[in-house]
Protein 1
Amino acid sequence: MHHTLNRGLLAAMLALPLAGCLSLGGEVPDQLLTLTPQSPAPAGTNATGQAKAAIVIFEPGTDQRLNVTRVPVQIDASNVAYLKDATWVEKPSRLFRDLIAETVRAKGNRLVLNEGDLGHAAETRLSGQLLDMGYDVASGSAVVRFDAVLQMPDGTVRSRRFESRIPSAAEAVSVGPALNQAANQVASEIAAWIG
C-alpha cells in the first residue's frame, strides 16, 4: 500500500509542471486569430537568383496600440478598446510581414529573403508602418492600413499607402475572417506594386 501511495504521489508531482503548460478554460480566448494567404506558393516552388537581386521584407513598425496580440477597436476619434474573446497568435506586424512575403513569393517572379539569412545582401527592401489592423466602429468594418516604403537597387525610394475595409459585425467570429480578407487584399496590391 505504501508503494501504491508513493506511485500516486509521484504521478501527481509529475503532473504539476504540465499544469502550467496546459489551460483548460479560464483565460483562453474563444478565437485565436492569424493571417493565412489566399494564394500561397505551392509546395516545390523554386526561386533562384543573386542575393542582391532579391527582395527583403522587413517587419513593419507599429504604434503601441498594435504592438500587442489583441485586436484594437476604434470606438471614435479618441477612444480605443480591444475586441472581446479574440487574440492574435503573434503580433500583427509579424503576421502581416509573413503574409506579404508569402504573397510576393506566390507570384513567382521575385526571390524573397528573410531579414536574417542573406537579407542584408538584398538591394530591394520593403519596409513601412502598419497603421491599422483592427475594427472600426464608425464604418462597421475591419480595416488594414499600411504605409509602404520600397527602396530600389539604384537608391530610388518609393512610398504608397494601402488600405482595405471589409464590412463586418463587431464580434470575433466575424472580425477575424474580415481582417484576413482585408490583409490579403492589401498584400496582393503590394505584391503588384513591387512588380
Protein 2
Amino acid sequence: MSRQSETKYRAVTAFQRRIGNPVLRRLPTQTLLETTGRTSGLPRHTPVGGRRVGNSFWLVSEFGERSQYVRNIKADPRVRVRIRGRWHTGTAHLLPDDDPVARLRSLPRFNSAAVRVVGAGLLTVRVDLDE
C-alpha cells in the first residue's frame, strides 16, 4: 500500500472510530452490520451502506480486507443486518472477483460516492439472508 493510501486509511478509520460510527450506530434508520469479534467474541456493529436485493444484502467495503468487519467475517461469516430498523440474520460472502466499482453503481448514491472517495482496495460483500 502506498504512503498516501496508508495515510488516507489511518485518517478515515480514526474519524470513523471516534465520530462517525458512534453517531451513525444510534440512528434508527441507519443500516448496521453486526459481526462477531474475531478475538473478543463480542458483537460488533458497523454502519454500512448497501441495498437489499431479494434475499441478499449487497455492500462494498471501502478498505477491502483491511476493514475490521471483513476480518471478522473471514473468522465467522454468520452476521446480522439491521435494515430499516429490523434485524435479519444471514451468511456473508466476500466476493473478490466481483467488480466493486460496477456494484457501487447499483447501490445508494450517497454511500457509493463516499466509498469511492475514501476507499482503497474495494471489496464486494454479499449477505445471504436466512428469511
Protein 3
Amino acid sequence: MFFDTLRFLIHSLCGLFVLVLLLRFYLQVARAPFKHPLCQFVMAATNFAVLPLRKLVPAMRSYDSATMLLAWLVALLSNVLVTLLSSVPEVFTFPQVWVALSLLSLLEVFKQSLTLLMGSVIVQAVLSWVSPYNPLMPVLDALTRPFLRPFRKANIGGVDLSPLVLLLIIQVILMLPVRMLEASFLTQLKVVL
C-alpha cells in the first residue's frame, strides 16, 4: 500500500511538472502573450530547470529544445523511479529496459501534449459561452488556433463545432495508436522484468 501511494505521488508530481514544461514550450511556439499571469507563472515555475539546461542544449530552428528535452527527462525519471519501486535494480543493466522506458517516456510526453491541447480546447469552448472576453482567451486562442483551423467549416446554425471535432480526433488518437504503443512498450518491459 505504501509503494502504491509512492508510485502515485511520483507519477502525479512528475506528470504535473511535465505539463507545465509542455505548456511553456507550446506557449513559446504559439507566440502567446507572455504578459498574461498564466504565462508568467509558467515561466517562473520552470526557469530554475530550463535556464541552466539551455546553456547545454541550444534551440533548434527557434524551438526551445531544452524545455522539450527536460519534459522527456522528467517523464523518464518518473518511469525509472516507478520501475525501481516495482522490481530489483539489476534490471537496469539490460539495454532493453532503457529502450522501453525511453520510448514510454516519449509516449508520455506525447500523451501529455494531447491532454494539454484537449484541456485548452475545453476551457476555451466553455469560456466562449460563459465569458468570451476573459483575459485568458488570447492565450487559449494562440494555443488552439492552429489545431482548430482545419475544422472551422464545421459550423451548424452559427454554432462552431470545430472544438467537438478536434476533441473526438484527440480521443481516437489516445484510444487507438497511443494505447497500442503503450501496451507494446509495457510488454517489452515486462518481458525483461
Protein 4
Amino acid sequence: MNPLFLAHGSPMLAVEQNEYSEFLKQTGASLKPDAIVIFTAHWETDIVTISSKDDEYETIYDFYGFPDELYQIKYAAKGSVRVAEHVGHLLSENNIQVAYDNERGLDHGSWTMLKHMFPKADIPVVQISVNPYRAPEEQFRIGEALRSLSSQNILLIGSGVTVHNLRAVNWGQKEPESWAVQFDDWLIEKMNKHDTNSLFQYEQLAPHAKMAVPREEHFVPLYIALGSGSPESAPKVIYRSYEFGTLSYLCMQF
C-alpha cells in the first residue's frame, strides 16, 4: 500500500468531472486499504494532532464564496480510534510528540479527494495535522516513523500542493508558467535520485522556490509522504497537470 502525495487543488474538485477527478476515481478503485491516514494542509497545529474517533466525521466547509452545491456535500466517513492510537504509538516511539482530537471533522484537504477515490465512505479515515514551521527534515522524519503502515495495508496520503501561490494564478490560463514547471521538475529529479539533502535545502537550491512556496502548509505533506515511502522504491509521478497557469496537480507515489 504505497504512500501517496496528492494535490487537492480547489474545493471545486468535489463537484468537477474532469481528467483529474477521473484519475482519483481510478486510483481509488485500484486500492483496497483497511484504513486511510491523511495529513492535510488545512489543519495546522504545533504538535502533530491525530483525529481519534470511531463515529462519523462532520464535513467541514472551510472555504467561502463557492456554489451552493458544494455546501450540500456530505462525506460520511468514520474514524478509527485503534488506528489513531497505533499511529500515535509509532510517532511517540520516534520521539515525536502527539496529541489527539475527537471532535474535528474532515476538512476539504481530505474529503474533496476522498469523495472521488472512495465514494462509499466505507473505509476508516484518520486525519492528521501539519505544522508548516517544522524544517523539511522534521517533516520527513514524521513520515519515516510511519513507514510500517504500508505493510499493514494502511494507505498514507499527504494532501497538499507543490506549487501553491494563489497570488500568481492566472484565471483561465491553460498553459503552465515555465517557472512552475521548473520547480516541479527540480523536485522530481531530486526525489528520483533520493537526494534528500538537496530536498531539505529546497529554499536555497530549487529554482523559483519562493514563488512556488510562499508559505509551506501545502508543501510539507510532500515530505511526510516521501519519508513514509520505502528507500528502496523509486518515486513515481502518477499524475501531473497545471491549472490557472501555476497551480500544480503533481501527484507522487512513494
